[in-house]
Predict the structure.
Amino acid sequence: METEKQERKQYDKEFKINAVKRSMEAGCSTASVARELGIEPNTLYNWKREYRNEAEAAFPGKGNLKPEDEELRALKKRNAELEEEVAILKKAMGYFSAIKK
């Protein structure tokens, strides 16, 4: 028996923000907006929660990070580079101190 895998639909940031703003308008229920757009109501509820928490930084897109996550990644990379430099300097210091003796 073959099972078909449904492809997961992907929506761009603009679509998500427009859907969230539409569902926040007076007189519009989230479920009715979701039906109109052909998406699950739970999906729209999740988008609304993310938008409320992150505002314009919500929905960064595939492969993109939120600004604070990008900054954290850059700091971790820089920290690793500095730790490597310190290790190299310690080895060099040990090597040169052994030569003096």
Q: What stands out?
A: Residues 10-63 form a domain with the Arc Repressor Mutant, subunit A fold (CATH 1.10.10).
